[in-house]
Amino acid sequence: MMMAKLFSRLALGFLLVTILTACMAAGTSTQTTAGTEVHMDSSRFSQTEITIQKGQSVTLINDDPLTPHVIANGTWENGTAKPGIEPNTPKVKDLQINGSARATLGPFNASGTFRFYCTIHPGMSLTVIVRR
User: Could you give the C-alpha distances from 129 to 26, 58, 99, in angstroms and in order?
Assistant: First the structure.
């Protein structure tokens, strides 16, 4: 009889701990990198535009083992580099991403449209759109 009561209390305690742990995990938000990566080959971004949420960062991944990229704020217009920075943009100047490497832009803490380009590859521009 005494063992049955002890077992019942232990089982009830385990059940309560399990429920509380599940509730706390459900209320926790985790930020994933899915959808925040942009790949690069030898002379272009795999996509020219990406939309992310405020507070996220963008990971640039150089898939070419031999070609470096140098990223900065700005864009290419008709073959001419146009350095520039929009208000509230993370400042990026001469961020070198060597072959088979990666680097992070951000976090982006304000909504808006922000432009980046590779300073050594004409036409290689990326627009980051940040939503609330």
Answer: 29, 11, 26
- Tell me, what DSSP letter sits at residue 92? -
- CA dihedral for 42, 48, 50, 54, sign (positive or negative): positive
Strand, helix or coil at 99? Answer: coil
Give SS3 for 131.
strand
Proportion of the chain in helix, strand, coil states, percent, rounded to 5: 20, 35, 45
Cα 107 to Cα 132: distance, rounded to the nearest angstrom: 13
How many other β-carbons are positioned within 10 Å of the β-carbon of residue 40? 22
pLDDT along the chain (132 residues), means of 10: 56 41 38 74 97 97 97 97 95 96 97 98 98 92
Rounded CA separation 43/124 (Å): 7
| Burial label, 85 (beta-carbon count in 10 A; 0-12, 13-18, 19+) | middle
